[in-house]
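1st attempt posting a full record on here, be nice pls
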Amino acid sequence: MSPTQITPEIANPEAPVGLVTRPRVVIAADANDVMREQLEFLIEHAQAGDCGCAQCTRYHRARTLLLEAFKDSAPAAKIATGSMR
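the predicted structure (as tokens):
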């Protein structure tokens, strides 16, 4: 039972009527926005150089997976960035 529901046994007719507060509902973030934000964070971290930390490892894994998934467009990316690591 919801904490906002009152059962008839508990209800007190003499009690002053008050507002029942509803539990807060947090709307889920868009998964694409979350993934893009994480990827941008990893890219910014890796721009300073590979320090061997967990974020660098995640960056290399994500980069490898993305390059494999989009291998048909890799030459266009090479031209746009000037080089591929």
